[in-house]
Design brief:
Layout lengths: L1 H26 L5 H18 L3 H23 L13 H27 L7 H21 L5 H18 L3 H26 L1
Helix pairs in contact: 1-2, 1-7, 2-3, 3-5, 4-5, 5-6, 6-7
Length: 197
Amino acid sequence: MVGLNYLVTILELVAAILGFIYVYFIATERSIGWLFGILSAFFYAIFFYLMSTVGLFSQQVAYIILGFYGLISWSANKEPLPIRSIGFSVWKWILLAVLLGLIFATVIKLAAASKNNSVIVPNSREILDAQFFIFSLLATWLTTRKILENWHIWIVVNIVGVIWFSTEHWWSTALLYFGYLLLAINGLRKWKKQLAE
């Protein structure tokens, strides 16, 4: 069992380091960041699979797909994508994300309940897992389109991530999400300044 614990710790650490590099490059608008994001998501997919968190595992698979989309959309244009704001219309996306997160948690719970005849109402960890998945996808998609409000969503997701991953004792990931939080605050500041120019 010690070997598996060691492997899990190494997977988490490698994924966290690659993830930090990813966000640094994205915040500075460098498309190479997407490659680091894809690699980070790959290692985190293995980690979260071993940790039996369906939402976080699914999130990493989606990150890999969105990472390729981001790389293509940021690299395809000779002229970089402009930063833009969607203002208060981001709330319709947020409300849709809440609804999708609840549906996702319920579907996952129903699938598990059918196998072992357990309770079909998702518990708080399963709802958190699903909501974290959906909101992270929304923020990533907004990032691929260079929409300023992605940083607002990332700030909230990162605060939740620091707290959640600390309670799970996933220290490298909690530290990564704290770094993400600082980078998201800085990214918001930089993108706002560029948008105002």
